[in-house]
Structure formats: structure tokens, C-alpha cells
Amino acid sequence: MTARKSHKRRFLIAGAAILAVGAGSLGLASRYGALGPIEGTIAPQFYVDSLPDAQIPIHGRYVLVDAASARLYMIEDGHVRDSMRVIVGKPETPTPKLKSVINYETLNPYWHVTADLTRTLIAANVLKEGDAYLTDRGYEVLSGWGPDAQVLSPDSVDWKAVAAGDLKVYVRQRPGPANSLGHFKFDLPNGDGIYLHDTPKKELFAQDVRNLSHGCVRLEDAPRLARWLLGKDPPAASAPEENILLPQPVPIMISYLDPRSQSELAALQ
């Protein structure tokens, strides 16, 4: 074999080896997703976009609620920055999968009781305990949800008809220590009545099984999420139902992750 042919053969072998390594790297990337360091660590970890059910942007902030494990993740630039426990819907009223966006946070929210809970919860308890059930918990009966709605006397309402579903009334709970939404609410524009909120019942987060709500997502530490979304401490509320715009909308996804996805997500922390 001449020196020229030998040199050409070595060149072809080297080229083939480079292509093989490149193909192998591409195969690993497609199998495991992009790799990169996580803040506070030196070992490389998987980016969150390797999860099959979470289309998480590489840049910007993103909220992921895994209803299967009852946990919320605060993600920025493809990395998990913080997380907390949440409470999600009961088996009979499960939290739905959805994709939406958070545009603002509400300080000192009213709780506008849904029609089904007005019938099954409010009316049923008023029939048992009388008007004291409403006054002790800060509930108001209204003529509607509009700005011109009037506060009605509970005595003027036929609560038996409400409980039977024959009469519709509007009930809201005033802001305060007993308010079921706590001090913060995070609305979802296309959430079909589903939203994230604070809660005064912090003891429930100690439970391993946390599918306890009527569908909305209760937050273990709502002030922490509020700070992260705003990038600073929220202002002190000066009035009920005060909406604070975020610097920019933050996408949110509620999903039910499988065990493999949960393990990959936990590895990012």
C-alpha cells in the first residue's frame, strides 16, 4: 500500500469515528434531553424540558403544578428554582389538566362561592345553624356579582329552596383571617373557575395525601409564590380585592406527571 493510500485510509477511518461519536451524542441528547448545570450544584443535571408532558420554555419563568404528587414548581430558564406542597381536588372533584397564564395576583381577595357550594355547603349549614353560620365566618348574601349588587339580609332568603336547587343566590366571604382564600389569589383566565390561592388551614399540608379541595389549588406558601412572580415583596394591600400586575405574564401548566417525570423533575432541585 502506498503512503498516499495509507494516509487516505487513516483519514476515512478517523472521519468515520467522528461521525459515530456525533451520532452517539445525538442519540443521547434525543433520549435524555439537554444537559446543563443547576444553580447551587456542580454536577450536571437534566433540564426540565426533558419531561414528556411539560412543554417548558428554555427562557423565562414558568409554573408547573403536578396534581399527581400535589406539588408546585417554580421554574426559570429551564431550571427548578423553588417548589412547595399544594392541595388539589378530591377524587370526585379533581383538579383538571390545563394550560393558562398568570397576569396578576390578588391581595385580600373575596371568596365568591360557586353555585354548587352555595347549595351544598352554605345553604345546608344555614339550615342547621341559622344566620350565625354566615356572620361568624364573614359571609355576605348578594343580589348578584355586578358592581351594583346589593347586600341582602339572610332572613330574606328561602334557604330550603337554595338547598333544593330551586333558587339561586350569590354568596361571598369577606377578606379576613377566616377567608378560605387566605391573603392571595392567582386567577387563571381560561381556568373555568380553577385558580391558585392561599389558605388559613396550613395544617393540611402535613398530610401525605393532599387531594382535599373542590378543584382549586391551595398553596402551602402563597406569599413566597407572590414574591417570586413579582420579583419583589408584594405591596401592603390597601383595600379588598386589590390586583397587582406582574412584570410580565407567567405561563402555568397543571398536569399529572408519571413517576419517571416526577423523578427527573426532583433531580433538578
Describe this protein with a few key phrases.
disordered N terminus, eight-stranded mixed β-barrel, L,D-transpeptidase catalytic domain-like, 269 residues, 15 strands, alpha+beta, four-stranded antiparallel beta sheet, globular, 2 domains, 6 helices
H-E order: HEEEEEEEHHEEHEEEEEHEH
Give the neighbour order of strands across the main sheet. Answer: 3-4-5-14-12-11-6-15
Q: What structural class should be given to the helix and strand makeup?
A: alpha+beta
Sheet with the most strands? Answer: 8 strands, mixed, barrel
Assembly type: single chain
* Count of domain modules: 2
Which bin fits the share of residues in helices? 25-40%
**Would you tell me the overall average pLDDT?**
82
The fourth-level CATH homologous superfamily of the largest domain is L,D-transpeptidase catalytic domain-like
The total of helices stands at: 6
How many whole angstroms does the radius of gyration measure?
A: 26 Å
User: Which class of the largest domain in CATH terms?
Assistant: Mainly Beta
Beta-strand level of the residues, as a percent range?
Answer: 25-35%
Instruction: Give the CA-CA distance, first to last residue.
Output: 58 Å
For this structure, the CATH topology of the largest domain is: L,D-transpeptidase catalytic domain-like
Shape type? globular
Indicate the low-confidence ranges by residue numbers: 2-48
Number of strands: 15
Q: What is the CATH-assigned architecture of the largest domain?
A: Beta Barrel
